[in-house]
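Reviewer comment 2.1 asked that we show a complete input and output for one of the modelled complexes. We chose the pyridoxal-5'-phosphate case, as it is the one discussed in the main text.
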Amino acid sequence: MTTPVWVNGELLDPAQATVSVFDHGLMVGDGVFETIKSVHGRTFALTRHLDRLKLSAQRMDLPEPDVEAIAEGVQACLAQAPDWPLGRIRVTYTSGPGPLGSDRGSEGTTAVVIVGEQKPFPVTGDVTVVPWPRNERGALAGVKSTSYGDNAKALAYAKQRGGGEAIFGNLAGDLCEGTGSNVFIVTEGRLVTPTLAAGCLAGVTRALVLEWCGAAEQDVPLSMLYEAEEAFLTSTTRDIQPIRLVDDTAMPVAPGPITAKAIQVFAERGAADIDP
Ligand SMILES: Cc1ncc(COP(=O)(O)O)c(C=O)c1O
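Response of the prediction step:
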């Protein structure tokens, strides 16, 4: 069975699923996206992800995406997918075909849903701090835009150095986020995560950890990551991943007691409600 791809309302064989070479998402990264997890074919936190897709589109001044149609596309793809223990659903929404420069076209938007299997992340992760800052004052700060060139470059930099994720500071020199994850640290026994004003994405997992585990939103200097008592990453595909190593600095414990508790609470609450 080939898992189909959904393009603008049509379910297609992956080999036939194409978009225009003039698509502005391809041309200039003029689009937004979401990555949603599925567990044995059931989406997790779909409502929050579709809300964020709408918000990202709004922040980029794109027409509002038809999230009801996209949700149907997600279910239609999953219905024909194998029973993956863990799946990854990618929703991409762009301004559609456009001219060769930055002006937008008027032929209508492009929406694509692709589903695939997600292999679980390692139990702990090593991270590499990159030398390039997130711009917390930029037009796309906190937007899940398809302009992810910064992230692709940073992740390649981290992987060359043995890291599994790259960590950004911001222009203020504070801790910001990873290329596809938010960061939490434990300092003086308190669980802390950067504020959204630091320029990080409003991660769905971050929000759930704040609600379910309790943590302070507080900006801290990037250097505090190296001195943390515990640290972890959050993301849709990882849930909570303890950080073992920051560059060459080993965390005192991974997972430490606060991280272990957060992992347990997240697993319990996430299992009890698939659309929290
Ligand atoms: C830049 C960035 N930060 C944080 C996250 C984590 O967000 P979520 O928990 O919604 O997956 C992501 C998700 O991929 C991301 O791309």
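The mean pLDDT is 97. We note this here for comparison with the apo prediction described in Section 3.2.
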